[in-house]
Amino acid sequence: MGLVSDCRSSSNIGTAVIWVPSNPRGAERLPPRIVAAESDLYLRRLWGNPNEDLTSTPKYLVTFTVGYDQRMNIDACVKKFSENFTILLFHYDGRVAEWDEFEWSKRAIHVSVLKQTKWWYAKRFLHPDIVAPYEYIFIWDEDLGVEHFNAEEYIKLVKKHGLEISQPGLDPNKGLTWQMTKRRDDSEVHKVTDEKPGWCTDPHLPPCAAFVEIMAPVFSRDAWRCVWHMIQNDLVHGWGLDFALRKCIEPAHEKIGVVDSQWIVHGSVPSLGSQGESQNGKAPWQGVCKVFLHYQYSLFYFILFACYHTASLAIIINHPNTQFVASYYAKAQRVLFSPLRHPNLLYKTRANWSVYHICSPFLLVSGEGEVQEGVDDVSDPADQCRKFIF
Fold first, then answer.
1. Rounded Cα distance, 211 and 244, in Å
2. Global pTM value
3. Which of 194, 101, 69, 88 is closest to 138 using CA atoms?
4. Residue 117: which residues within 8 A CB-CB, separation 6 or more?
5. How far is residue 274's CA from residue 240's CA, in Å, rounded to a whole number?
6. Among 26, 130, 177, 305, whose Cα sits 20 to 30 Å from the Cα of 263?
7. Over 331-383, what HEC string results?
């Protein structure tokens, strides 16, 4: 029986009927065959037969968060992706029409919101039910050199080696932070590495395995469905995601890796710095600086840790000064202030941490603490958190 006849035959049934409790939330009263739980980013005509709209359906999605000043580099990047890819540009500078100087821009999708990061866009415009048609989702920065990269070949290698989360290897001579993401000359793909002594307590854990960075990640459809839910709405820089991605894959050390034979160069263009605002005589870039980024990094890990332990610890948060239970104090101290897991965490603060409290939502404040020279004293509790954490 077709959809139309199904709908007609049910026309006399009251609207209070629950058709399928397992329908998506809010759609329980709809007959199952009318429910369109997923969508796509395929462009459609405003006329004609809808069944004839799509002459092709790209299998993959690539997104770039861009400013117009980086247009030539983005043009070079886009040309590395075949017609099997939907191109989606997130514009943080509001300049959209100018991109039509490139022919490919006219068939790309453009989303423009001023002064936002790629993880802000990803959380709001790349819901798993929207990008469900795509086998792989590339969420890339705008400052990547792609002379030695071919997207189709990259996909072949990802499938061959069973990678659910991956990134291209990085040129070891520029923009390199971690050994794991350094390109190797003797392999197609690598999944483990050796780091500095003491950095890896477990060879199967980041940063020695189960790890990629956030400038050029590639997610399978299933992996992205998990990662999207882990991205916090307010922690828009995405710092900390790289170490937490493994939570979405099992076994992570086998399904997260770096593709060496298709590699890129990380240009490390500080484009976000120009998007800050001048306040109190400080330059705009100082509003988007490493202190704030490290703050978001630590806050993300604190939230992640708290979410894994709040059930068993039965912490009730209903007041900015709710005190940690003793066991939580010890665990939070180990996680948040371990130089091993957070090597840059303590570089601006020395403190006598005697009493911990929770500042809503999940901000740390100390009962005592001395801030080193160079860190301004502040009175606001939230700002106090930022200063003391770093």
1. 8
2. 0.73
3. 88
4. 65, 92, 236, 237, 238, 272
5. 23
6. 130
7. HHHHHHCCCCCCCCCCCCEECCCCCEEEECCCEEEECCCEECCCCCCCCCHHH
Contact between residue 389 and residue 290 where contact means Cβ atoms under 8 Å apart:
no
Q: How far apart are CA 42 and CA 56, in angstroms?
A: 9
Q: Which residue has the tokens 């000359």?
A: 185
Q: Are 154 and 260 in contact (CB under 8 A)?
A: no
How distant, in Å, are the alpha carbons of 163, 185, 344 from that of 203? 18, 22, 21
**Ordered structural domains, the chain, with CATH:** 60-272 (3.90.550.10), 289-389 (no CATH)
Q: 239 falls in which pLDDT band (50, 70, 90)?
A: confident
Alpha helix positions (H), the chain: 3-9, 71-78, 118-125, 151-160, 221-230, 241-244, 252-255, 290-313, 326-336, 381-389
Q: How many helices (DSSP H) and strands (DSSP E) are in the chain?
A: 10, 13
Is omega for the bond preceding 361 within 30 degrees of 0, making it cis? Answer: yes
pLDDT tens by residue, 91-104 = 999 999 999 999 99
Q: Kindly list the distances between the CA atom of residue 225 and the CA atoms of 1, 49, 219, 258, in Å, as whole numbers in the listed order.
A: 33, 32, 9, 20
